[in-house]
Amino acid sequence: MNEKKIGEVILDVRNISLRFGGVKALTDISFDVREHEVRAIIGPNGAGKSSMLNCINGVYQPQEGSISFRGQTFKHMNSRQVAEMGIARTFQNLALFKGMSVIDNLMTGRNLRVKSGLLAQAFRNPFGIGNAQKEEEQHREFVEHIIDFLEIQAHRKTPVGTLPYGLQKRVDLGRALAMEPQVLLLDEPMAGMNLEEKQDMSRFILDVNDEFGTTIVLIEHDMGVVMDISDRVVVLDYGKKIGDGTPEDVRGNEEVISAYLGTSH
């Protein structure tokens, strides 16, 4: 296996603090993400992990701190602006269109890439509708590539809501990949999965990282998975950072052990 080449810092989180009324969700959190790495965020329930992802992708606006993406610093961005910059997100609770087919769900991930609607282009230029149709065909071709990549060809026309949970999570990953993100935020991609489904998802995450070159930030509770697939790990506890480093560094960190891993580990 080739040695993976980690690049320069692509995402830089600096001194982020987030409060809801008098409750502190995050306190002075700083860490960075390097291009082409798998960066895990771990911690007990209520540690602030999902809140951190929500700050990165514009769902929450932190009261203090800043986030830089490829050297461009932003304090207040909405989710669409963040997505247009090249950051995609999956959610812990699936937000798929359950009545729509797999391929149609994945096509919704291409929305940011669609330059113009068929109807709009036809009104502006009746002779230009062929270009719009060609564009749609290109989007569909890209989505078909993702379907092959995620090995869900047999389910492409199936309504997502009828699929087993593990396959729905795979479709959710596919929809995020359809956006062609530079950074992919995964919120508990293995939650609720059995061992075989976790192994499949781990393989897909590593393949996305390797073959697409996508930088990945993931929240995950399964420590075996985290230690196996992550390049670096940041540890949160009660909204504060208590560890940051390689899986080996984190595994040996006494504060992390007492807060999260348990002394038996």
UniProtKB/TrEMBL annotation:
One of its GO terms (cellular component) is plasma membrane. Gene3D superfamilies: P-loop containing nucleotide triphosphate hydrolases. CDD domains: ABC_Mj1267_LivG_branched. Its EC number is 3.6.1.3. Coiled coil: none annotated. It is an enzyme of class 3 (hydrolase). GO terms for molecular function: ATP binding; ATP hydrolysis activity. PANTHER family: ABC TRANSPORTER ATP-BINDING PROTEIN, CONSERVED COMPONENT OF ABC TRANSPORTER FOR NATURAL AMINO ACIDS-RELATED. This is ABC transporter. It comes from Hydrogenophaga intermedia.
